[in-house]
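Amino Acid Chain and Its Fold in Token Form
===========================================
Purpose: to set a sequence beside its fold so the mapping can be learned.
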Amino acid sequence: MAKILITQTRSRIGQSPRHRATLDALGLRKINATTVRERTEVLEGQLRLINHLIRVEDAPKGS
């Protein structure tokens, strides 16, 4: 599986509880927080839900 780099770019303030819970599930708690995850169908659904709050990139080799 391919790995992707997920970075929170916007604040969680004013977002719905569902969006905040998705950010928490991904381990994103502050602006500019970054995590590396395996690309799966479940993750793709989570990313679609909060795509206005995050930036997604391919992870560098060796991550």
Q: What stands out?
A: The first strand starts at residue 3 and ends at 8.
